[in-house]
């Protein structure tokens, strides 16, 4: 009986081993649960930085290449912002972008950024109707977008309720007060906030209400530095400034803005005053494209060094012969002439 049981177990083990060998998933990840997040920045780490008075770095990015750069630089938080509506899609405001479009950006960023905490914006229209809509949208950002947290704008009672409901659903929320681009219909445009007594007090009170709702951090956009300093002092969660002066717990800028990538007059017109350009990447891109256009126009690109695929002399002769049999004499002549020219160019470039 015992020997029969041993044989049965042995057969089962062989079957399991065989199935694992057939799988294209590494053995140690099969039914292994969530992937280890040891390298990912966590909320606990952000809280520790905040407690120590260390500045938190945030960059807004929208695609795989920018996410890889943000990751490589060691930025703490990568925000997939609804500003993609303007920066990537060319709209005048953030309002047109949909949740489905945002999810595409989120997934691309999630594939490129392995270290930063990933925060996805809830776009306009994705959370205003009800707390059920807000929670459902937030769930999609995490499950379908691969984000670690969401961000929502504003501090009206309904937004505070939405933030609280999302937190209670087990999803981390970053708040956003001051200039809230999704509310430009009410604000009358992209206008700084907190520039009079009532508005300044409202910024602080709204930030505190978002903290009370469970937000782990609050973005302060386009408010005077003293107002941002007051809010930062009043809160026990980090504040992330953008056009709010140096007294916040951290700072956020848009990837394309800080790199000086966008040279188009339309984008230059809407580039915010508070943005420091740490490079002029746009000028480099324009120069490279113009050089490419010139070389293609002059037929100097591609040359031998960028035409790596060869055909042997014997095969070329056979190819020419087959073309002639097909009655394609002109094609054969063109092929022969091109081979001669490439050989001549290669000889000149090697001298």
> Low-confidence segments, ≥5 residues, pLDDT <50?
12-25
Order of helices and strands: HHEHEHHEHEHEHHEHEEHHHHH
Strand order of the largest sheet: 1-2-3-4-5-6-7-8
Output the radius of gyration: 29 Å
CATH fold-level label of the largest domain:
TIM Barrel
The level of helicity is 40-55%
Biggest pleated-sheet summary: 8 strands, parallel, barrel
The CATH class of the largest domain is: Alpha Beta
CATH superfamily placement of the largest domain: Phosphoenolpyruvate-binding domains
Domains counted in the coordinates: how many? 2
The tally of helices reads: 15
Distance between the termini: 83 Å
The shape is elongated
Average predicted confidence as pLDDT? 87
What structural category arises from helix and sheet content? alpha/beta
The count of β-strands is 8
Strand content: 5-15%
CATH architecture of the largest domain: Alpha-Beta Barrel
Q: What attributes does this structure have?
A:
TIM Barrel; alpha/beta; single chain
How are the SSEs ordered, and which strands pair?
Layout: H1 2-22, H2 43-52, E1 56-60, H3 64-73, E2 77-80, H4 84-87, H5 99-112, E3 117-121, H6 131-143, E4 149-151, H7 157-168, E5 172-178, H8 184-187, H9 197-212, E6 217-221, H10 225-234, E7 239-242, E8 250-254, H11 255-258, H12 265-270, H13 281-297, H14 313-325, H15 329-349
Parallel strand pairs: 1-2, 1-8, 2-3, 3-4, 4-5, 5-6, 6-7, 7-8
Helix pairs in contact: 3-5, 6-7, 9-10, 14-15
């Amino acid at each position: 009986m015992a020997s029969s049981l041993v044989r049965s177990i042995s057969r089962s083990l062989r079957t399991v081993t065989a199935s694992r060998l057939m799988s294209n998933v590494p053995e140690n990840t099969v039914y292994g649960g969530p992937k280890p997040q040891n390298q990912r920045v966590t909320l606990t780490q952000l809280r520790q930085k905040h407690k120590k008075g260390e500045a938190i770095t945030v960059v807004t990015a929208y695609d795989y290449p920018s996410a890889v750069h943000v990751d490589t630089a060691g930025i703490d938080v990568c925000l997939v912002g609804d500003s993609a509506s303007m920066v990537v899609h060319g709209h005048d405001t953030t309002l047109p972008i949909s949740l489905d479009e945002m999810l595409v950006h989120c997934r691309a960023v999630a594939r490129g950024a392995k270290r930063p905490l990933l925060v996805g914006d809830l776009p306009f229209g994705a959370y205003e109707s009800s707390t059920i809509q807000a929670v459902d949208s937030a769930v999609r950002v995490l499950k379908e977008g691969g984000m670690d947290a969401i961000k929502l704008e504003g501090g009206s009672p309904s937004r505070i309720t939405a933030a609280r409901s999302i937190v209670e659903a087990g999803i981390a929320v970053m708040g956003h007060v001051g200039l809230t681009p999704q509310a430009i219909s009410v604000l009358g445009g992209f206008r700084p906030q907190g520039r009079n007594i009532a508005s300044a007090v409202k910024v602080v009170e709204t930030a505190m209400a978002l903290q009370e709702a469970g937000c782990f951090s609050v973005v302060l956009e386009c408010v005077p530095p003293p107002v941002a300093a007051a809010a930062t002092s009043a809160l026990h969660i980090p504040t992330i400034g953008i056009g709010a002066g140096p007294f916040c717990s951290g700072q956020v800028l848009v990837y394309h803005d800080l790199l000086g990538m966008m040279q188009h007059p339309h984008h230059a017109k809407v580039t915010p005053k508070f943005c420091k350009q740490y490079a002029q990447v746009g000028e480099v891109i324009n120069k490279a494209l113009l050089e490419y256009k010139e070389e293609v126009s002059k037929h100097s690109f591609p040359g031998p060094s960028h035409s790596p695929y060869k055909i042997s002399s014997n095969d070329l002769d056979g190819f020419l012969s087959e073309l002639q049999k097909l009655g394609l004499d002109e094609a054969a002549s063109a092929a022969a002439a091109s081979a001669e020219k490439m050989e001549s160019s290669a000889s000149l470039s090697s001298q």
